[in-house]
Design a protein that fits this description.
about 375 residues; mainly alpha; Serine Threonine Protein Phosphatase 5, Tetratricopeptide repeat; 3 domains; 2 strands; elongated
Length: about 375
């Protein structure tokens, strides 16, 4: 599906040339007959039928107006309509008419823009049935989103305070449960509307087991990554520190940490992030030195295998023992190069330890010879 029309229409409804034909016609009808015209569905549909719009648009609009309660949203909505109200309107149109989500969104946007409501259309991640889906949806103005983000943070802080109060005996379990429900509902509402701060807060909940959620590090990483990809600097900083400070060396990932620390705004979080990035960057220089030593050891092993002529390595014995060691050494260097190309900031010293072990074994056998 071509979403290029979004760039031409966002911020231009309803009076500039970027407005869709249906939106312009509806605006004309509202200007001529007043907002109360939507109280008479047949009149609005009749006015649209007189226009030169294509038959598909006319049919979809008639279906939406007859089967859904979009007229109620128009009558009751204000310019500060919440993201949840907007999402509910689109969902109602899709459910009641059988139209696809994108078609329902398009018609709903046209109707609401004609009444002067201001929001944008975007193709980005949203939370649907507990899963992240990338789809076309409507987003409210930043002022409205900021208000709901602030409310979600307040409820999250109240939940954490209720937990502390309960630990001190100043709050009961029912109070904690109620505050958890209010907080998680506000956070889920943000996610369902594609707001990055919602995914960040949901990631925190799953990481710490807050607001009634289970501790699920995998789910936390998923939500945090989604928030970071949407431009949330706090999520990027959280992930950077998570990969950088991981206790398990097998899970510690400096390359991933470098990726998130270099996301826009992440380093502005504080000195901790800046110092971590400096440390990670130094690892790349250390890796180059490690790779150089590994190559030198591989070359030394090959040279000794070729030129050593005495003892147990004379004749076929030399080939039987020396060649496998040289092949293993070369394969180690090859694996080291491939790994370093994929993860240039991760520590590659274990590869050099393998090379040192091979060289030690070979040198020991040479001494025995």
């Amino acid at each position: 599906m071509d979403f290029s029309f979004i760039k031409n229409t966002v911020g231009k409804y309803p009076k500039e040339e970027g407005a869709s034909p249906l939106s312009r016609e509806l605006q004309s009808i509202v200007s001529k007959l007043g907002p109360e015209v939507f109280d008479n569905k047949d009149l609005v549909i009749g006015e649209i039928e007189k226009t030169e719009l294509d038959e598909k648009t006319k049919s979809q609009f008639a279906l939406v107006l007859k089967c859904s309660n979009i007229a109620d949203y128009v009558r009751n909505s204000k310019s500060d309509m919440s993201v949840v109200d907007l999402d509910n309107a689109i969902h109602n149109v899709a459910e009641s008419t059988g139209l696809t989500h994108d078609a329902a969104l398009t018609v709903t946007v046209d109707v609401l823009y004609a009444f002067g409501l201001r929001f944008e259309v975007e193709f980005s991640p949203v939370l649907a049935d507990g899963k992240i889906e990338k789809r076309l949806h409507a987003a409210m103005p930043s002022s409205a989103a900021e208000r709901e983000i602030k409310d979600a943070h307040v409820l999250y802080d109240l939940y954490k305070k209720s937990v502390d109060d309960a630990a001190e005996g100043n709050a009961d379990e029912e109070t904690v449960k109620k505050s958890a429900e209010e907080a998680i509902n506000a956070i889920n509402n943000l996610c369902s509307c594609g707001i990055s701060e919602g995914f960040y807060l949901l990631g925190l909940c799953h990481y710490y087991g807050d607001c009634g959620t289970a501790v699920d590090k995998e789910a936390s990483l998923t939500f945090m990554s989604c928030a970071s990809d949407m431009g949330n600097a706090k999520a990027a900083s959280f992930l950077g520190n998570l990969y950088y400070c991981e206790d398990n060396p097998r899970l510690r990932d400096y390359t991933a940490a470098h990726y998130y620390f270099t996301r826009p705004g992440a380093l502005a979080m504080g000195k901790t992030e800046q110092n971590a990035l400096k440390d990670i960057s130094m690892q790349r220089a250390a890796n180059r030195l490690t790779l150089l030593f590994s190559v030198i050891l591989a070359v030394m092993t090959a040279v000794f295998a070729v030129y050593f002529r005495s003892g147990i390595f004379s004749g076929s014995s030399r080939l039987g023992v020396g060649i496998p060691v040289v092949i293993l050494s070369i394969l180690t260097v090859a694996a080291e190069v491939v790994y370093n190309r994929r993860k240039p900031f991760n520590n590659i010293r274990p590869f050099m330890f393998v090379q040192l072990f091979l060289w030690a074994v070979y040198a020991f056998l040479l001494v025995l010879a």
